[in-house]
Design goal:
The chain contains 6 helices and 9 strands; from the N terminus they run ααβββααβαββββαβ. It has 2 domains: 53 residues; 152 residues, no CATH class. Helices cover 33% and strands 28% of the residues. By secondary structure, the protein is an alpha/beta fold. Strand 2 and strand 3 form a beta hairpin. Strands 2, 3, 4, 6, 7, 8 and 9 form a 7-stranded mixed beta sheet that branches. A two-stranded parallel sheet has the order 1-5. Helix 3 crosses helix 4. About 5% of the residues have low confidence.
Length: 215
């Protein structure tokens, strides 16, 4: 008996004895091919999840926990003595998202106010008055990928391109010497078409300013 026939015969032993005669010929080869295909698919899925765990990133299927629906946010209260502006438009801060770059710099929610104040001096005080929601995202391996993800996962009630009171700003930032990834959902006094803005490290101090209202 050849080695090939021995392997084939042993493989058929996993089936009940009443089924084995039906596995001879083309039917048997079809069954063997189907079993091999299923085993290959299972192996590919295992490899995919192992690689994802080792890399520490996520795909779109893993982003469901990051979704923010701005239509569900309550309106802001009366403005305080300090107002943030973006490109000259007065806004209220309704959402702050911060993520570390890589795995070596963990961020706790208690650290967020200090970190954003390092990006723009005085922003800590604005957050204290506006009381936004604060979210800390998992470490990001791609600096360039953060802003598109923030824009994709932060859902405005209006369709894209239409005037809205919501302005979304995101991108790479530097808090002192520490690189971070920062996203802001801002509520303007009136609808506008500024929409979604992506900033690099050197642009935050130009696009965002803080106004102080005299008492």
């Amino acid at each position: 008996m050849s080695l090939r026939w021995t392997v084939w015969a042993d493989w058929k032993d996993v089936f009940p004895e009443s089924v084995r005669p039906h596995l001879d010929g083309p039917v048997g080869y079809a069954v063997l091919a189907a079993v091999g295909l299923i085993a290959l698919l299972i192996l590919l899925l295992l490899v995919k999840y192992v690689l994802r765990a080792l890399v520490g990133g996520w795909g779109k299927d893993d982003e469901s926990g990051l979704r923010e629906r701005l239509a569900e946010y309550p309106p802001p209260g009366p403005p305080g003595s300090r107002r943030l502006t973006v490109e000259g438009i007065p806004v209220r801060v309704r959402l702050v998202v911060v993520a570390p770059v890589g795995k070596e710099h963990a961020i706790a929610e208690a650290d967020v106010a200090g970190l954003v104040d390092g990006v723009l001096r005085g922003l800590r005080d604005v957050l204290a008055e506006d009381r936004p929601r604060v979210r800390v995202w998992p470490p990001q391996l791609s600096r360039q990928g953060f802003a598109p993800t923030f824009h994709r996962e932060t859902e405005k009630p209006e369709s894209e391109g239409r005037p809205s009171r919501w302005i979304l700003v995101a991108g790479q930032a530097s808090s002192g010497r520490k690189p971070i990834l920062l996203g802001l959902a801002l509520w303007a006094d009136a609808p506008n078409t500024l929409g979604r803005v992506t900033l690099d490290t050197g642009r935050w101090g130009e696009a965002l300013r803080i106004q102080t209202r005299e008492s």
